[in-house]
Write a structure and sequence with these properties.
Blueprint (H helix, E strand, L loop, with lengths): L10 H8 L7 E2 L11 H9 L13 H11 L6 E4 L1 H13 L3 E6 L3 H9 L3 E6 L10 H7 L6 E5 L11 H13 L3 E5 L24 E6 L12 E5 L2 H10 L7 H10 L3 H22 L5 E3 L6 E6 L6 H9 L3 E2 L1 E2 L10 E5 L3 H14 L1
Parallel strand pairs: 1-11, 3-4, 3-5, 5-6, 6-7
Antiparallel strand pairs: 2-8, 7-8, 9-10, 10-13, 12-13
Helix pairs in contact: 2-9, 3-9, 4-5, 4-8, 10-12
């Protein structure tokens, strides 16, 4: 009994359907940093639980200044929200595009929010024959004056493919000439290698047709805090988004956590190092198997295609769930099929266990 269209990390559904205690699930589907919530955040929250009796600063100035130090973007060009999902919705409503293009496969929330605002939506495919790398020339041929918004997840979920800073700047310049906005979801960018230059935050100050959205659920392992932030130098769009935003949408503990986590340089460095090392290990070991194909990733997850027609992603899910291991059957993503699965990077010992299981299957 495989869960169909299961959101990654939905352990409540796994627990109910498979009768596995939540604490025993080894979750390779949720894409959350295996180091867990930074100890600095835990300690700060423990010391300040009384803060829940007070309102946070409605302007969140200290939090935004902490994000400025972390990203290099002026805090006046940053707003915070109740997770990245709220900010995706907020900026789409503020921009109110009539016609949009989503680089796909992608997070389903983009399309949902765009359609709720009345936008027509076209999916631009990352194709298997191009290893899910964006074909920039084909994309810009699609971009005309009728397009208001291009939505891009970088690195992409679920493929792990990515654009470099140089490629994004090329796209931005083209969009600028056509009066098109570019929304980049950088949920997974912090897992990328610095030398790949995937981070587009340095472009914020120079382009008023760009807004970048990030959350803290994945890299800082805190989905329950619901803290996200957005950077944009277009004052008109930023002010409009702020005017539509609910007051105090970031609670006091999330506000406190954000002020602390972005300054925890040891946690940030350790996270990047372990993800980079374990990603290389997975790619090295699984590349030896002839029945699967791996795709280059700059995220904390890897997309895998099964080349054996006798095995599907659902079969792999069913085999692994018996050992309390959960991977993501990726067949419900656009342009992927029943032979695609995705798994994230956990601790070295859990990764070794998954490697052993996958080698036995394939």
């Amino acid at each position: 009994m495989t869960i169909i269209n299961q959101h990654g990390g939905d352990l409540d559904s796994i627990e109910r359907l498979y009768k596995i205690p939540r604490e025993k699930i080894i979750d390779f589907s949720g894409n959350i940093n295996p180091l867990g919530v930074p100890e600095s955040v835990k300690n700060e929250i423990k010391k300040n639980t009384d803060l829940i009796c007070t309102y946070p600063d409605s302007d969140y100035k200290i939090l935004r200044q902490s994000i400025e130090e972390y990203t290099g973007v002026n805090y006046e060009n940053i707003i915070v929200g109740n997770g990245a999902t709220e900010l995706i919705s907020l900026f789409i409503k503020a921009l109110s595009p009539k016609k949009s293009i989503i680089i796909s496969p992608a997070y389903s929330e983009y399309e949902r929010e765009l359609k709720l605002t009345g936008s027509s939506v076209e999916l631009f495919p990352l194709t298997e024959d191009e290893n899910f790398k964006l074909n920039m020339q084909k994309l810009i041929q699609k971009l005309d004056s009728d397009i208001d918004l291009v939505v891009l997840c970088n690195p992409n979920n679920p493929t792990g493919s990515y654009l470099t800073l140089h490629e994004i700047e090329f796209l931005l310049n083209f969009c600028l000439d056509k009066n098109i906005f570019l929304m980049i979801d950088e949920t997974y960018v912090e897992f990328s290698d610095a030398d790949k230059q995937v981070d587009a935050m340095p472009l914020i100050k120079n382009y008023n047709n760009l807004f970048i959205i990030r959350g803290t659920s994945k890299f800082f392992a805190s989905p329950g805090l619901r803290l996200g932030y957005c950077a944009c130098s277009n004052k008109k769009l930023l002010d409009l988004a702020v005017s539509k935003k609910d007051p105090w949408s970031v609670n006091m503990l999330a506000n406190l956590a954000g002020i602390v986590m972005f300054k925890d340089t040891e946690f940030i460095k350790n996270s990047k190092n372990i993800i980079a090392a374990e990603r290389k290990k997975f790619i090295r070991e699984l590349s030896k198997l002839k029945k699967i194909k791996l795709y280059d990733s700059q995220s904390n997850f890897i997309l895998l295609k099964i080349l054996d027609n006798n095995i599907s992603a659902a079969n792999v899910f069913d085999i692994l769930i018996k050992d309390n291991i959960v991977i993501r059957d990726a067949s419900d993503f656009p342009y992927l099929g029943s032979n695609f699965l995705r798994f994230c990077i956990l601790s070295p010992e859990h990764n070794d266990l998954l490697l052993l299981k996958l080698k036995n299957i394939f």
